[in-house]
Design brief:
Length: about 450
């Protein structure tokens, strides 16, 4: 960006790093994403609107593929689709050669509905139902990642007549230093086999005729800014794999190290680049395998947030601005916790810009509130913005992951429309819901 523009943009300019790769400011001082003026998008499609930048989505897929394959050839990249699910996105990911990590019959069904190749789909989850397992076996899905003994027994019965490839999900007992609700790999977790059960799980899986144990998996948590939890878990799991090799002749063909790669939500907290995770993970696997005389397993990674997070921008229109003298200035927008519940449940922090006032100077702190009937429906507390008034468009970056995926119809909210932008063109990939959608399942 030219120096001239930087000076003109003042405080808002620094926040552009949080937006999609194509984000810039046009001559009208509007935020532009994917060549589209976001203020015009808001007018054309209405708000709340989720805008996904195709270049950023494809760029992230390519970055994961190339950074991991450069240091660890053959790495399989699965998109953990719970972060954001949409048919157009699945088609794009299929084109990019990614696989999918699904955690429910619903996710599996959507993948099937777009003809996603079954061989590239891995089925996760701590409480898969018999129906879900049957559906997976009949597809037949690429891998089932078995979480516990109940599932192992269930699957052994259901898998008659199949030869299903499975992995075992292990809980390595590593604290990933993240929010406790997104921690999954510590001892006290509902996910995976606890350390004391690992040996028995491998022996049981190996002795089940209709199951083929191809590997081990762990996922220690989400939004990990450090590589250490991956490296420590790799050590623990590979040590165990070596023991299983000498005890049962088990060959570790696949090692799943989960997802959890961090993204940048606020200017002050940049995560390491993907190449740093790739380097640390691959060198730890290589050195440990050398030490233990194990063949290098195929590496499986499952990024969710880091594929879609930065590509997504949420657009809202400002309605009421309520100033409580000496207390706070509330700027209410036309969305909130129904489309982004993360601040309410995790205390997640976001930044924002006024999309139609990108060059204006900050004029003090405001709190961006949603329109839903909960006092906790606050999107951003105390953020410096230019003067805001009704009709302005607020853009919140890093909104691609776990916003729409966790969205609800609370207060009978219509789930937002979603557009995919590229080279100045916007394609509607999900229309806004209507009253008919809200009542579709009711039987009066
Ligand atoms: C949620 C999840 C992921 C993806 O986590 P992100 O933080 O979105 O990258 C990967 N693997 C498993 C098993 C998960 O549950």
């Amino acid at each position: 960006m030219a120096r001239q523009t930087l000076l003109k943009l003042g405080g808002m300019e620094a926040r552009l790093v949080l937006f999609p790769l194509t984000a810039k400011v046009n001559s009208q001082n509007h935020l532009v994403v994917g060549g589209c003026d976001t203020v015009k998008l808001a007018a054309e499609f209405g708000t709340p609107l989720y805008v996904f930048d195709e270049a950023t989505l494809r760029g992230k897929c390519a970055e994961f593929r190339s950074e991991f394959n450069r240091v660890y050839p053959g790495t399989v990249v699965l998109y953990a689709c719970k972060a954001f699910i949409n048919k157009a996105l699945f088609n794009l990911l299929n084109e990019e050669g990614l696989g999918l990590d699904v955690v429910s019959g619903g996710e599996m069904g959507i993948a099937k509905s777009v003809g996603f190749p079954a061989a590239r789909v891995y089925f996760h989850g701590n409480n898969k139902t018999p129906d879900e397992l049957k559906e997976a076996l009949d597809w037949p899905i690429g891998r089932i990642v078995v979480d516990n003994f109940h599932e192992l027994t269930l699957l052994a019965d259901l898998a008659e007549g199949h030869k299903q490839d499975i992995l075992l999900r292990l809980t390595p007992g590593i604290d990933p230093h993240t929010h406790k609700y997104i921690t999954t790999g510590t001892i006290d977790s509902k996910f995976g086999f606890p350390v004391g059960e690992w040996d028995k799980a491998v022996s049981k899986a190996l002795s089940t005729p209709n199951l083929n144990l191809v590997g081990l998996h762990f996922h220690v948590g989400s939004l990990l800014f450090e590589t250490e939890p991956y490296e420590k878990s790799i050590e623990v799991v590979l040590d165990f794999a070596a023991k299983m090799k000498s005890k049962y002749g088990f060959e570790l063909k696949e090692l799943g190290v989960g997802g959890g790669f961090a993204i940048q939500y606020v200017v002050a907290s940049p995560p390491p680049p993907i190449s740093t995770y790739a380097g640390a993970i691959s060198s730890r696997i290589k050195s440990k395998c050398r030490e233990l005389k194990l063949a290098l397993p195929k590496l499986i990674i499952e990024p969710g947030r880091s594929i879609v997070g930065r590509a997504g921008v949420a657009l809202y229109t400002v309605g009421v601005v309520k100033a409580i003298p000496d207390v706070r200035r509330y700027v209410s927008v036309d969305g909130g916790m129904a489309d982004n519940i993360r601040p309410a449940i995790y205390g997640s922090v976001y930044e924002a810009v006024v999309a139609n006032k990108m060059s204006e100077k900050e004029a003090g702190k405001v709190t961006i509130a949603g329109k839903f009937c909960e006092s906790g429906d606050i999107l951003i507390r105390d953020i410096e913005l230019p003067p805001v008034s009704a009709g302005d468009v607020i853009a919140i970056p890093s909104s691609g992951a776990y916003c729409l995926a966790m969205s609800s119809n609370y207060n009978a909210a219509f789930k937002p429309a979603v557009v995919l932008v590229k080279d100045g063109k916007a394609r509607l990939i999900r229309r806004r819901e209507t009253v008919d959608d809200l009542t579709r399942c009711d039987l009066p």
